[in-house]
Write a structure and sequence with these properties.
InterPro entries (chains A, B): HTH_LacI, LacI/GalR-like_sensor, Lambda_DNA-bd_dom_sf, Peripla_BP_I
Largest interface: A-B, 47 and 48 residues
Strand content of chain A: 15-25%
Structural class of chain A: alpha/beta
Strand order of the largest sheet of chain A: 2-1-3-4-5-11
Keywords (chains A, B): DNA-binding, Repressor, Transcription, Transcription regulation
Protein name (chains A, B): Ribose operon repressor
Number of domains of chain A: 3
Shape of chain A: elongated
Order of helices and strands of chain A: HHHHEHEHEHEEHEHEHEHEEHEE
CATH architecture of the largest domain in chain A: 3-Layer(aba) Sandwich
Oligomer: homodimer
CATH class of the largest domain in chain A: Alpha Beta
Domain HTH lacI-type (chains A, B): 2-56
Distance between the termini of chain A: 75 Å
Chain lengths: 333, 333
Amino acid sequence: MVTIKDVAKHAGVSVATVSRVLNEIGYVHEDTRRMVEKAIQELDYTPNEVARSLYKRKSRLIGLLLPDITNPYFPQLARGVEDRMQESGFRLIFGNSDESEQKERDYIQTFVQNNAVGIISSTNFPGMESYRRLNIPVVFLDRISSDRPAVYADGREGGRIAAQQIIERGSRRVTVLQGPAHIRPAQDRFQGAVEVLQDTGVAYEVIRTASFALKEAEEKAKELFAAFPDTDGVIASNDMAAIAVLHEALRLGKKVPEEVQIIGFDDIPLIGLLSPPLSTIRQPAYDMGYKAAELMIRLIEGQTVELRNIQMPVEFVERGSTRKKPENEYVDR
Amino acid sequence: MVTIKDVAKHAGVSVATVSRVLNEIGYVHEDTRRMVEKAIQELDYTPNEVARSLYKRKSRLIGLLLPDITNPYFPQLARGVEDRMQESGFRLIFGNSDESEQKERDYIQTFVQNNAVGIISSTNFPGMESYRRLNIPVVFLDRISSDRPAVYADGREGGRIAAQQIIERGSRRVTVLQGPAHIRPAQDRFQGAVEVLQDTGVAYEVIRTASFALKEAEEKAKELFAAFPDTDGVIASNDMAAIAVLHEALRLGKKVPEEVQIIGFDDIPLIGLLSPPLSTIRQPAYDMGYKAAELMIRLIEGQTVELRNIQMPVEFVERGSTRKKPENEYVDR
DNA sequence: ACTTTATGTGTAACCGGTTACTCATTCGAG
DNA sequence: CTCGAATGAGTAACCGGTTACACATAAAGT
């Protein structure tokens, strides 16, 4: 391994001078700089980040914690984060938490042990002690917390839109899937939907789910149609759940969207290719990841951050699991 | 930050003794050990990996390089790798290469700079100088190279199976999508398919593609039906390409599988939920990632590895984009 | 001509661990 | 009872960078 000493020797200067050249700090004579740069070239030297990190007590590493990269929603988030970080020369230590508190703790610990300068996390436990103790910036992604900056989509509005749409398109006995209780955006969606359902006086039922895992979603889908067989509209807690519901509906011989309308949440890839293609509330996942990274970078650089909570807009994506909207409401105007 | 010195002071011993306790190395009196452990507890001390890594010249970090985590095939690979690594206490520095040589080089450099102990890569440039120079183990994943150990699926056999199936199911004018020329598994699939097509004397055409990007696949799908409008069977280079072909076929009003059969490759999530659900050649992506990590760990631990190239089996997954197999072949027996 | 200030470079301490080496004490074998 | 081996623990060098500080020389003010 080529070290700064080798470069110093080769260029006939001290390590301090090489370091100055590397970091473009302090005075270095133009001729000296050239000598050093030549030496660096010739020896193909790259500074060891570990040594640097040790002295500075900070690395160029960011911890990224997601529940499960295998869930089609998360790759987009991850990619957004990576792209922005990469632009500023940060690298990611990546982990799947599987919605397990222990795994989260373990990862947070290794992030700290590796002098990570920040953590971006789609945690399931935002209030966890491990986060509170940290003295590096934390940004919650697709999550909300009162103590930490966060980037998330407007779940409340999403829920409202979903309910409005499903009602306008004719559903009268709606079942709403309530996502995990401890995840704010999931609750917001739920509340937004219920809000509109109540205001408009449309009958609705609720099915609770505890996680975002596909397996659980499948069970809940069965439960849904068993408990409320006359449901004619389902607002799912996310697209994976919507898929499970769609499958179950089809299995039971129900026509979608004629007999049951289904609206998902997220707009994960390929969801528009199902049959019928799923209508959903789109979250800008890539952008959310990107913004979270951006926020993180500002935090790391100690810039005063005006906006610590970034709420992203959502939109209804009309596809085949909802019926066409009757166009008789606002005839003129 | 709590350091080993704080622990030593608190326990009334030297740092060497604390280190011995931590690493369970050398002689430490039982009473002393308890004192130290108590101090560690009370101060909530965790050793700094960076310092450790600097002295040992190796970290607990593994570089993982994938073309694009957003491509539905890769999350599974990544997850397999992560799960196995996690079992042995290794962590991942993760990067997307976007099939760009420059990005790969940059990532390899940072892996080295951070004292990564190994690199697992789905590289597009296995012969690249940057890999050859490395003196840490490299495992290629879903790729093949003569100089490095690799884990990949049996593409040749997969191609053969695809061709056999599509022929048995009645296609007589097959178009084969040839994946990127520099990616061996893609070529193997292609060759396997062509091999069978030639042996059986079925007419076939070829469309070349340069990358695995969805966008390109869409263009090529258009090109395919423009150049060979009477195609009645398509063997795609992967599922994303198969989706593009399916879409284009449907757009042109062709019935799938009645007029055109389509076989994909990979078996990515949700592909079985399309309409029609895509028949495909399944690669055990999660297992491949897991095995690659396992191989890497053996390499790191310096174990003599008998099997440096691990080829995983593939299988045909029959779904709706291929027709039913005529069952008249072996009537009695 | 004489301070000041700016420029240029080297020495050595430091970051937080690990380990080679040293030294002291205890134990067991002959 | 003696001596080598086993046990237990501390000191300091080391890993590869960064930077405070010292020092020398050149340029700029007065």
